[in-house]
Design brief:
By secondary structure, the chain is mainly beta. About 5% of the residues lie in helices and about 45% in strands. The two termini are about 30 Å apart. The mean pLDDT is about 80.
């Protein structure tokens, strides 16, 4: 999994067949390992807690907390594994894949 250093740079081992892709997330779709930019810093989600009303409390690797509600929409980087191990194919539209 990618991790951020104090400068906010994503670091981690290169994974064959995996790509970091931007995805829109909500309280319903956020996942462990998502990297969210908050205040100019990249923060990786290390724990999640369900709250009343569909909200979630995110715990980042830095120990900081962020609560997102059902109407919150954020863009996160998510590690997406690619079948066949070709990261270039991960971003191709379905009709162009062979």
């Amino acid at each position: 999994m990618p991790r951020t250093d104090r400068g906010g740079t994503v670091r981690g081992p290169a994974l064959s067949g995996a790509v970091l892709c931007p995805v829109e997330i909500t309280s319903a779709s956020v996942q462990l390992g998502d990297v969210i930019q908050v205040g100019g810093r990249q923060c990786r989600v290390t724990d999640l807690f369900q709250l009343p009303g569909g909200a979630k409390r995110l715990v980042f690797d830095s120990g900081e907390l962020l609560t997102i509600h059902t109407g919150t929409r954020l863009v996160a980087l998510r590690l997406v594994r690619v079948r066949g191990g070709d990261p270039a194919r991960a971003l191709a539209t379905r009709r162009h894949r062979r």
